[in-house]
Amino acid sequence: RQHRLYQQGCLGCTRECRGSCRSSHSYQYAPDRTEPASHRLERHHAAFTLRILKEEDSNIFKGCDISRKGIILMRKTIVASILSTDMAVHSGLLAKLEEMEEEGFDFVDEKEEWPQNIIELYATCILHTADLGTNALPLTQAVAWGSMCLREFAAQAEAEEKNGLDVTPFMAGLDNEFVMAKTQYGFCFYVVRPWLTGLERFW
After folding, report:
1. pTM of the shown model
2. What is each CA distance from 163 to 37, 152, 157, 160, 203, in whole angstroms?
3. Helix, strand, or coil here: 70?
4. What is the rounded CA–CA span in Å between residue 144 and residue 134?
5. Pairwise CA distance, residues 110 & 101, whole Å
């Protein structure tokens, strides 16, 4: 089903490169419809996920003894989690974890029932970690995933240049192995490592 979601819903490039995209899915969860670039790719993913969940063989809510309010909250959590995979909110999530640590919050030892915002944060952390987590896979798999991402970035840079657009800086020059390695190192050291270190404090 993961592959099915990717094949049916993937736009192929980041939201910046899809500035002319008019996918109805990409606007469904827009916090501000006058600013279509905000979370466009992630909104598309969220809308497509819920569309697939409505299908008979993919409806995980079917047959569950859950109230309509409960289903609405779960859908809300799913959407919030997917929107959080936008790297634009990464620093904010990390800061939130640091703030919660200072307040003494512990996901494991917390006894009281969690409010909706904590449930959403918990789900968000899990999905965001999965989104970044390919770098924590065994080396062969991590390299394979990284190579696919870098090829996609290189294709976008080529398309931007071809169409007279400003080339996204971190996507430029990825046909050079040294640049590719430097990009991967920077991502692991400055993004993945701080995130996993921040999460480790709670588990």
Report:
1. 0.68
2. 19, 17, 10, 5, 47
3. helix
4. 9
5. 12
- The C-alpha angle with vertex 148 and arms to 143 and 153, in degrees rounded to 5, equals 120
Residue 25: other Cβ atoms inside 10 A:
19
Per-residue pLDDT tens digits for 47-85: 888 888 888 888 887 778 888 888 888 888 888 888 888
182 class by beta-carbon count within 10 Å (0-12 exposed, 13-18 middle, 19+ buried): middle
Amino acid at 193: R
The answer on pLDDT for 31 being more than 50 is no
Q: For residue 123, give both structure tokens.
A: 């789900």
Identity at 123, one-letter amino acid code: A
Tokens of 35: 């600013």
Is the pLDDT at 1 greater than 70, yes or no? Answer: no
* Pair of tokens at residue 197: 């270190």
Give the whole-angstrom CA distance, residue 147 versus residue 180.
Answer: 9
Q: CB burial class (10 A; 0-12, 13-18, 19+) of residue 50?
A: middle
Confidence of residue 112 (pLDDT cuts 50, 70, 90): low
Residue 176 is classified by DSSP as: S
